[in-house]
Amino acid sequence: MRRYKLIIAYDGTMYHGWQIQNNKPTIAQTLQDTFAQVFSERVTIVGVSRTDAGVHAHGQLATFTTDNNNFSNLDLSKIKYAWNNLLPPDIVITELSEVPVSFNPFYNIDYKIYCYYFFIQRPSPFVSRYGWQIRSGICLQKLKTALSVFVGTHNFQAFVTGDDRGDDTVRSIDSIDLEYDEQICAYKIIIKGPKFLRHMIRRIVGASIEVALRSDLSVNCLQLMLENHTLSRTLVSAPARGLVLHKIIYKIKD
């Protein structure tokens, strides 16, 4: 048996997320189906982050194993070329490497980097599908202060949805930064942390931007929501199209 690691970039607009679902196109399903077409073998591709429908990635990490001796004798660059050649244009494998069979992609993660993009002016049609256009009047300094509320270790029960609401909802966020991307004329919220809950980032971003847009809401209301584990219904969840999984960083072993 041999194990391989993939780094994958994708535009998630036309997909129902990473995870395989019945009768719906997903990133994992597309990768597995194209692999089977190229190499006449079914494999299970396991992704580190189960991105939601409409979410994009620059650096999704995934692994698969195979017992096919013929496959293991092929040159990795040729494997990647053949596989990419059959993938749709909105998915590309950027790296392919062999790793020890003992490698577990969920262990030893230092942090993940997610970026959320938003526009304060009408964006170019070439990038509009990759960010959230918000209404005018946002206070960027207030937004920075609002985002800083979430840095550290907190119970994020108020900022998740679905099955995660019943699980352990304590998570740590290492840092949140706000930058301007001149190339696409968008603001970028950069969030770093080891592990996130479902919809957690989109709810944090949506609530913070709403507070920064409204004079009748204070930053303190976000702190109260964290402490009381209740999200105000007046605050929105940021749309999926602005969220990108940028990179997954592993701890360096001694």
Main attributes of the structure:
254 residues, alpha+beta, Alpha-Beta Plaits, nine-stranded mixed β-sheet, two-stranded antiparallel ribbon, 6 helices, 24% helix, elongated
Write structural notes for this entry.
The chain is of the alpha+beta class. The chain folds into two domains: 2-99, Alpha-Beta Plaits (2-Layer Sandwich); 115-245, Alpha-Beta Plaits (2-Layer Sandwich), CATH 3.30.70.660. It has six helices and eleven strands. The protein has helices at residues 27-39, 69-72, 76-86, 140-148, 200-213, 220-228, and strands at 2-10, 46-47, 56-66, 91-99, 109-119, 132-133, 152-155, 170-173, 175-181, 186-193, 243-250. The strands form two sheets. Strands 1, 2, 3, 4, 5, 6, 9, 10 and 11 form a nine-stranded mixed sheet that branches. A two-stranded antiparallel ribbon has the order 7-8. Strand 9 (175-181) and strand 10 form a beta hairpin. Helix 4 packs across helix 5. It is elongated.
- Termini separation comes to 27 Å
Number of domains: 2
- Radius of gyration over all CA atoms, rounded: 20 Å
User: What is the average per-residue confidence, as pLDDT, rounded to a whole number?
Assistant: 92
Number of strands: 11
CATH superfamily of the largest domain: Pseudouridine synthase I, catalytic domain, C-terminal subdomain
Which spans have pLDDT < 50 for at least 5 consecutive residues? none
CATH topology of the largest domain: Alpha-Beta Plaits
Percentage of residues in helical conformation: 10-25%
Q: So how many helices?
A: 6
Question: What is the general shape?
Answer: elongated
Class inferred from helices and paired strands:
alpha+beta
- CATH C-level of the largest domain: Alpha Beta
The ordered H/E elements are EHEEHHEEEHEEEEHHE
Largest beta-sheet details: 9 strands, mixed
Judging by the overall fold, what is the CATH architecture of the largest domain? Answer: 2-Layer Sandwich
Tell me the fraction of residues in β-strands, as a range: 25-35%
